[in-house]
Amino acid sequence: MAELPFTNDIRMLRFLMCEMTQGELGDRVGVTRQTIAAIEQGKYSPSLEVAFRIAHVFNRPLEEVFRWRQEKD
Amino acid sequence: MSFREKTHWAAFLALAAAFGWYFLAYPWAMVSTDAGVAAVAAMLVPVTIIIIAVLAVTAAFFAIRAPKEAHLKEDERERSIHVRGTHLAYYPLVLGAWINMIAIFYRFSPGVYLNLLMATVVIAELVRVGSQLYYYRRGY
Questions:
Q1: N or C: which terminus of chain A has fewer CB atoms within 10 Å of its end residue's CB?
Q2: Contact B75/A30, CB-based, under 8 Å?
Q3: 3-state SS of A13-66?
Q4: Which of B:101-140 have CB within 8 Å of A?
Q5: Domain span at residue B99?
Q6: Is B98 in a helix, a strand, or coil?
Protein backbone atom coordinates (compact mmCIF):
# COMPACT_ATOMS: atom_id res chain seq x y z
CA MET A 1 0.00 0.00 0.00
CA ALA A 2 1.36 3.43 -0.94
CA GLU A 3 2.46 5.63 1.94
CA LEU A 4 0.27 8.70 2.47
CA PRO A 5 1.98 12.02 1.67
CA PHE A 6 1.25 13.36 5.15
CA THR A 7 1.69 12.35 8.77
CA ASN A 8 -0.44 13.18 11.79
CA ASP A 9 -0.10 13.77 15.51
CA ILE A 10 -3.49 12.40 16.50
CA ARG A 11 -2.07 9.83 18.92
CA MET A 12 -0.07 12.46 20.80
CA LEU A 13 -2.99 14.93 20.80
CA ARG A 14 -5.32 12.25 22.17
CA PHE A 15 -2.81 11.59 24.93
CA LEU A 16 -2.64 15.29 25.75
CA MET A 17 -6.45 15.47 25.90
CA CYS A 18 -6.63 13.35 29.07
CA GLU A 19 -5.82 10.15 27.17
CA MET A 20 -8.90 10.34 25.01
CA THR A 21 -9.65 6.97 23.42
CA GLN A 22 -10.00 6.37 19.69
CA GLY A 23 -13.65 5.52 20.31
CA GLU A 24 -14.30 8.84 22.09
CA LEU A 25 -12.61 10.78 19.30
CA GLY A 26 -14.60 8.79 16.73
CA ASP A 27 -17.86 9.61 18.54
CA ARG A 28 -17.04 13.31 18.54
CA VAL A 29 -15.97 13.34 14.90
CA GLY A 30 -18.77 11.09 13.68
CA VAL A 31 -16.72 8.14 12.44
CA THR A 32 -16.03 4.66 13.82
CA ARG A 33 -13.15 3.78 16.15
CA GLN A 34 -11.65 1.70 13.34
CA THR A 35 -11.59 4.72 11.04
CA ILE A 36 -9.73 6.80 13.64
CA ALA A 37 -7.26 3.92 14.04
CA ALA A 38 -6.76 3.75 10.25
CA ILE A 39 -6.18 7.53 10.04
CA GLU A 40 -3.78 7.44 13.00
CA GLN A 41 -1.73 4.65 11.43
CA GLY A 42 -1.57 6.47 8.09
CA LYS A 43 -3.59 3.78 6.33
CA TYR A 44 -6.54 5.98 5.40
CA SER A 45 -6.64 9.51 4.06
CA PRO A 46 -9.67 11.24 5.62
CA SER A 47 -11.88 13.72 3.80
CA LEU A 48 -11.23 17.40 4.38
CA GLU A 49 -14.38 17.56 6.51
CA VAL A 50 -13.25 14.77 8.86
CA ALA A 51 -9.74 16.26 9.05
CA PHE A 52 -11.22 19.61 10.09
CA ARG A 53 -13.52 17.92 12.60
CA ILE A 54 -10.54 16.14 14.20
CA ALA A 55 -8.59 19.40 14.39
CA HIS A 56 -11.66 21.10 15.89
CA VAL A 57 -11.90 18.47 18.65
CA PHE A 58 -8.28 19.17 19.62
CA ASN A 59 -8.84 22.91 19.22
CA ARG A 60 -5.82 23.13 16.91
CA PRO A 61 -5.33 24.39 13.37
CA LEU A 62 -5.39 21.67 10.73
CA GLU A 63 -1.65 21.94 10.00
CA GLU A 64 -0.82 21.13 13.62
CA VAL A 65 -2.71 17.85 13.38
CA PHE A 66 -1.75 16.83 9.84
CA ARG A 67 1.67 17.60 8.35
CA TRP A 68 2.73 17.29 4.73
CA ARG A 69 5.87 15.13 4.36
CA GLN A 70 8.99 16.86 3.05
CA GLU A 71 9.37 15.87 -0.57
CA LYS A 72 12.53 13.95 -1.38
CA ASP A 73 14.46 15.52 -4.27
CA MET B 1 -13.32 -5.65 14.48
CA SER B 2 -16.30 -3.43 13.67
CA PHE B 3 -19.93 -4.59 13.61
CA ARG B 4 -20.05 -4.31 9.82
CA GLU B 5 -16.86 -6.30 9.39
CA LYS B 6 -18.26 -9.08 11.58
CA THR B 7 -21.52 -9.20 9.59
CA HIS B 8 -19.47 -9.25 6.38
CA TRP B 9 -17.56 -12.31 7.65
CA ALA B 10 -20.89 -13.98 8.43
CA ALA B 11 -22.20 -13.16 4.93
CA PHE B 12 -19.02 -14.41 3.25
CA LEU B 13 -18.96 -17.70 5.18
CA ALA B 14 -22.72 -18.26 4.77
CA LEU B 15 -22.51 -17.62 1.02
CA ALA B 16 -19.47 -19.86 0.58
CA ALA B 17 -20.95 -22.68 2.68
CA ALA B 18 -24.50 -22.57 1.31
CA PHE B 19 -23.56 -22.27 -2.37
CA GLY B 20 -20.60 -24.59 -1.88
CA TRP B 21 -23.11 -27.21 -0.76
CA TYR B 22 -25.42 -26.32 -3.66
CA PHE B 23 -22.80 -26.77 -6.37
CA LEU B 24 -21.42 -29.94 -4.78
CA ALA B 25 -24.81 -31.55 -4.14
CA TYR B 26 -26.52 -30.53 -7.38
CA PRO B 27 -27.41 -33.59 -9.51
CA TRP B 28 -25.26 -32.63 -12.52
CA ALA B 29 -26.19 -35.83 -14.37
CA MET B 30 -29.74 -34.52 -14.85
CA VAL B 31 -28.85 -30.87 -15.55
CA SER B 32 -30.19 -31.09 -19.11
CA THR B 33 -33.59 -32.44 -18.11
CA ASP B 34 -36.73 -30.76 -16.74
CA ALA B 35 -35.96 -32.42 -13.41
CA GLY B 36 -32.62 -30.59 -13.45
CA VAL B 37 -34.42 -27.25 -13.69
CA ALA B 38 -36.79 -28.28 -10.90
CA ALA B 39 -33.78 -29.30 -8.78
CA VAL B 40 -32.36 -25.76 -9.11
CA ALA B 41 -35.58 -24.30 -7.70
CA ALA B 42 -35.89 -26.95 -5.00
CA MET B 43 -32.30 -26.52 -3.83
CA LEU B 44 -32.40 -22.73 -3.95
CA VAL B 45 -35.11 -22.63 -1.28
CA PRO B 46 -33.01 -24.17 1.55
CA VAL B 47 -29.91 -22.27 0.38
CA THR B 48 -31.77 -18.94 0.57
CA ILE B 49 -33.30 -19.80 3.95
CA ILE B 50 -29.90 -20.81 5.38
CA ILE B 51 -28.22 -17.60 4.19
CA ILE B 52 -31.01 -15.33 5.50
CA ALA B 53 -31.13 -17.22 8.83
CA VAL B 54 -27.34 -17.04 9.32
CA LEU B 55 -27.27 -13.32 8.48
CA ALA B 56 -30.20 -12.53 10.79
CA VAL B 57 -28.89 -14.59 13.72
CA THR B 58 -25.31 -13.29 13.50
CA ALA B 59 -26.44 -9.66 13.07
CA ALA B 60 -28.72 -10.00 16.12
CA PHE B 61 -25.96 -11.72 18.12
CA PHE B 62 -23.37 -9.03 17.40
CA ALA B 63 -25.93 -6.23 17.89
CA ILE B 64 -26.84 -7.59 21.34
CA ARG B 65 -23.14 -7.89 22.29
CA ALA B 66 -22.28 -4.37 21.10
CA PRO B 67 -25.50 -2.35 20.61
CA LYS B 68 -23.68 0.97 20.32
CA GLU B 69 -21.59 -0.23 17.38
CA ALA B 70 -24.61 -1.73 15.65
CA HIS B 71 -26.42 1.63 15.68
CA LEU B 72 -23.47 3.59 14.28
CA LYS B 73 -24.08 5.01 10.85
CA GLU B 74 -21.75 3.96 8.06
CA ASP B 75 -18.88 6.46 7.93
CA GLU B 76 -16.91 7.72 4.91
CA ARG B 77 -14.23 5.00 5.11
CA GLU B 78 -16.83 2.23 5.24
CA ARG B 79 -18.79 3.81 2.37
CA SER B 80 -15.66 3.95 0.27
CA ILE B 81 -14.83 0.31 1.12
CA HIS B 82 -18.32 -0.67 -0.03
CA VAL B 83 -17.95 1.26 -3.29
CA ARG B 84 -14.57 -0.40 -3.99
CA GLY B 85 -15.98 -3.86 -3.32
CA THR B 86 -18.99 -3.27 -5.58
CA HIS B 87 -16.68 -1.94 -8.29
CA LEU B 88 -14.50 -5.08 -8.16
CA ALA B 89 -17.58 -7.35 -8.26
CA TYR B 90 -18.63 -5.72 -11.53
CA TYR B 91 -15.84 -7.53 -13.45
CA PRO B 92 -16.83 -11.15 -12.66
CA LEU B 93 -20.46 -10.13 -13.21
CA VAL B 94 -19.72 -8.83 -16.71
CA LEU B 95 -17.48 -11.81 -17.49
CA GLY B 96 -20.25 -14.19 -16.38
CA ALA B 97 -22.81 -12.33 -18.50
CA TRP B 98 -20.57 -12.69 -21.57
CA ILE B 99 -20.02 -16.40 -20.88
CA ASN B 100 -23.80 -16.82 -20.67
CA MET B 101 -24.34 -14.95 -23.92
CA ILE B 102 -21.72 -17.05 -25.70
CA ALA B 103 -23.21 -20.23 -24.18
CA ILE B 104 -26.56 -19.42 -25.82
CA PHE B 105 -24.99 -20.12 -29.23
CA TYR B 106 -24.08 -23.64 -28.07
CA ARG B 107 -27.75 -24.39 -27.28
CA PHE B 108 -27.35 -25.76 -23.79
CA SER B 109 -30.36 -26.67 -21.66
CA PRO B 110 -32.10 -24.13 -19.38
CA GLY B 111 -30.61 -25.94 -16.36
CA VAL B 112 -27.08 -25.14 -17.57
CA TYR B 113 -27.92 -21.46 -18.12
CA LEU B 114 -29.57 -21.24 -14.70
CA ASN B 115 -26.51 -22.70 -12.99
CA LEU B 116 -24.14 -20.53 -15.02
CA LEU B 117 -26.11 -17.42 -14.06
CA MET B 118 -26.20 -18.48 -10.43
CA ALA B 119 -22.45 -19.18 -10.40
CA THR B 120 -21.88 -15.72 -11.91
CA VAL B 121 -23.92 -14.01 -9.21
CA VAL B 122 -22.33 -16.07 -6.40
CA ILE B 123 -18.78 -15.40 -7.62
CA ALA B 124 -19.52 -11.68 -8.00
CA GLU B 125 -20.99 -11.58 -4.52
CA LEU B 126 -18.01 -13.46 -3.03
CA VAL B 127 -15.64 -11.03 -4.76
CA ARG B 128 -17.66 -8.07 -3.43
CA VAL B 129 -17.82 -9.24 0.19
CA GLY B 130 -14.32 -10.77 0.09
CA SER B 131 -12.69 -7.60 -1.24
CA GLN B 132 -14.57 -5.51 1.32
CA LEU B 133 -13.22 -7.81 4.05
CA TYR B 134 -9.73 -7.39 2.62
CA TYR B 135 -10.05 -3.59 2.73
CA TYR B 136 -11.50 -3.72 6.26
CA ARG B 137 -8.48 -5.80 7.40
CA ARG B 138 -6.00 -3.54 5.60
CA GLY B 139 -7.55 -0.43 7.10
CA TYR B 140 -8.71 0.90 3.75
A1: C
A2: yes
A3: HHHHCCCCCHHHHHHHHCCCHHHHHHHHCCCCCCCHHHHHHHHHHHCCCHHHHE
A4: 136, 138-140
A5: 3-138
A6: helix
The 10s digit of each residue's pLDDT in B56-68 is 999 999 999 888 8
The ipTM estimated for the assembled molecules is: 0.83
Contacts of A37 in chain B (CB under 8 A): 139
Interface residue B5 vs chain A (CB under 8 A): yes
Contacts B77 to A, Cβ<8 Å: 31-32, 34-35, 38, 44, 46
Axis-axis angle for helices B34-65, B3-25 (nearest 10): 160
User: How many separate helices (H) and strands (E) can be counted in chain B?
Assistant: 5, 0
Structural domains of chain B, count: 1
Give residue-wise pLDDT tens across range A2-61: 778 888 999 999 999 889 999 999 999 999 999 999 999 998 999 999 999 999 999 999
The SS3 of residue B134 is: helix
Distance from CA of B8 to the nearest CA of A (A): 15
Of the partner residues B2, B5, B77, the one whose CB lies closest to the CB of residue A44: B77
Residue ranges of the domains in chain A? 21-60
The amino acid that residue B56 corresponds to is A
Looking at chain A from residue 11 to 40, which residues have their Cβ under 8 Å from any Cβ of chain B? Answer: 30-35, 37-38
Q: How many angstroms separate the Cα of B9 from the Cα of each of B27, B65, B114?
A: 29, 16, 27
